[in-house]
Amino acid sequence: MLGNGDIWEADDALRMVAETGCAGVVIGRGCLGRPWLFGDLAAAFAGETRRALPTMREVGAIMHRHATLLAAEHGERHGCSDFRKHVAWYLKGFSVGSDVRRALAMVSGLDELAELLARIPDQPYPTAVLGAPRGRTTPPRPVALPEGWLLDRDDPRPPSGAELEVSGG
To answer: In whole angstroms, how far apart are CA 21 and each of 46, 61, 165?
Structure first.
């Protein structure tokens, strides 16, 4: 069984595994604009406490790499156009002028992207946004497991009829 929902930081994943006994977690919106979350997860599950807090300059390099990969796959114009939806997630919490944000939301080429990113002053990662939801969210819901799910944590089989409660079939 995999846990899903409200995994914004590596510690959220550790908590979910501890509370539910799930075998792993599924990451959704928590990685939007934060691809380094997967490295944090690997470190957390290995028992390490280090977490990535990239500077704006490092985030800018990641953004440019992301756009470059999209451009290689879809062509520069379409790749950059597709990249635009990620800009706000990457920049969440950073101090960036509105003119640069607006221009990044309309970027159409890799050179233009590099020039705009270079205009943003380097700064530490905005820790105030850690643990905050990303993308559209609904209010948090309590974890709900089928009746009897945790009675025997060593038994990998779900309780009889458990799938019927959640899947309808």
So the answer is: 17, 37, 19
User: Distance from CA of residue 147 to its chain's centroid?
Assistant: 31
Residues 20 and 15: their CA atoms lie apart, in Å, by 8
Contact 76, 109 (CB under 8 A): yes
Tally Cβ neighbours within 10 Å of residue 107: 20
What is this structure's pTM? 0.76
Token pair of 35 as six digits: 């691809």
Which secondary structure element, helix H or strand E, spans residue 70, and what is its range? helix 56-74
Binned at pLDDT 50, 70 and 90, residue 169 comes out as very low
**Cβ(160)–Cβ(151) under 8 Å?**
no
pLDDT value for 140? 65
Alpha carbon of residue 60 to chain centroid:
16
pLDDT beyond 70 at 27: yes
Question: Terminus-to-terminus CA distance in the chain, angstroms?
Answer: 17
Do residues 2 and 25 make contact, with C-beta atoms less than 8 angstroms apart? yes
